[in-house]
Amino acid sequence: MSRPLRLEYPGAWYHVMNRGLARQSTFLDADCYSAFLDTLAEAHRRFSVQVHAYCLMGNHYHLLLHTPEGNLSRAMRHINGVYTQRFNRLQKRDGPLFRGRYKAIVVEADSYLLSLTRYIHRNPVETRTPLVASLQEYPWSSYPAYLNKARAPEWLYRDFTYEALGRRDKYRGYKAYVEQGVDEELAEFYGRQRKYSVLGSEVFRERLLGGDKLVSAEVASRELVVRPPVSGENLVEQVAQVFGCSPAEILARSRPGRKGYNPARSVAMWLCQDRAGLTLPQIARLFGGIHYSAVSQSVRRIKTRMAEDEELQSLVDRVSRGVIVRCNA
């Protein structure tokens, strides 16, 4: 049997799904759900993937993703691979978690974005036995954030959906829209045993599936700015600016016998790994030729501190925003 068609281009939108191997559970407790959301956040930072809606069910997930850089495969390798590692550590198991490659449906966002968010968000009540009496009570989807009933993570993009809704009272309006139920066209599309790889009009499908030339024309017609890779040196400069120190203070190797916590240095190391994709040995060379195990320990400690220290997390968020602005300037 042939593999599902993969269509990737800058600016593409996708409905991405995956199930547990042999329908096994992929989320067993709150720690598992939180670990997956952490992995989504990392994919956003590392690959510029925008998450517009999500719903995590017991043995599968739904994501609505936008890829300005046309790099869905790389982002999904991170999401599925890293989450599997975290799930295995949490559950003290090993081996594969998902049934195989994720399924990605390319979406014509102008026509289907709004209705697709509704389809994704209604999953907890569209099961044979509804998981909750009221959708906004389900904590593992983006729906409560869409209603402003839960804090929206910085990587969740809601404005596109609100604009498509076109209602002045966006929270109440979106709630009323979702409560209307899934429309017949989408119900028929997702009810097919063998689904198309494209959700869109005939013109949209022909443009994507008509051959390499037509796909290239689709890409060429979009005025997109692809974010260039972030260098370790640029990240160090940005950290120094936010933390009020010099790049030299961050990069300098500590003198023998000198001990002390340097959050700017640790944050810069972590961002070099998370945002620039540098390996531990590469980071070790950049930060004074230290041993790569020291980098690993420093990164692990700063991630723990960020989870406990809101002020530190706020500084890190400022660094990330500054890097994005500078790269897109």
Description of the molecule:
InterPro entries: DnaA_C (IPR013159), Transposase_17 (IPR002686), Transposase_17_sf (IPR036515), Trp_repressor/repl_initiator (IPR010921). This is Transposase. Strands 2-3-1-4-5 form a 5-stranded mixed beta sheet, with helices on both faces. The longest helix is centred in the N-terminal third of the chain and has 20 residues. It is α+β, with helices and mostly antiparallel strands. Strand 2 and strand 3 form a beta hairpin. It folds into 2 domains: 209 residues, Alpha-Beta Plaits; 97 residues, DnaA protein, C-terminal DNA-binding domain (Chromosomal Replication Initiator Protein Dnaa, Chain: A), CATH 1.10.1750.
* Structural class assignment: alpha+beta
Radius of gyration: 22 Å
Q: SSE string, helix = H, strand = E?
A: EHEEHEHHHHHEHHHHHHHH
Largest sheet: 5 strands, mixed
Relative helix content: 40-55%
Poorly predicted tracts of residues: 211-227
Strand content: 5-15%
Quickly count the domains. 2
Distance between the termini: 46 Å
CATH homologous superfamily placement of the largest domain:
Transposase IS200-like
What is the overall pLDDT average? 85
Shape: globular
Number of H/I helices = 15
Descriptive keywords:
five-stranded mixed beta sheet, Transposase_17, Chromosomal Replication Initiator Protein Dnaa, Chain: A, alpha+beta, Transposase_17_sf, 51% helix, single chain, Alpha-Beta Plaits, Transposase, 5 strands
Topology:
Elements: E1 12-19, H1 30-47, E2 50-56, E3 60-67, H2 72-91, E4 103-107, H3 109-121, H4 143-146, H5 159-165, H6 170-179, H7 184-191, E5 198-199, H8 202-209, H9 212-220, H10 232-243, H11 247-251, H12 263-274, H13 280-286, H14 292-308, H15 310-328
Parallel strand pairs: 4-5
Antiparallel strand pairs: 1-3, 1-4, 2-3
Helix pairs in contact: 1-2, 3-5, 8-9, 10-12, 10-15, 12-14, 13-14, 14-15
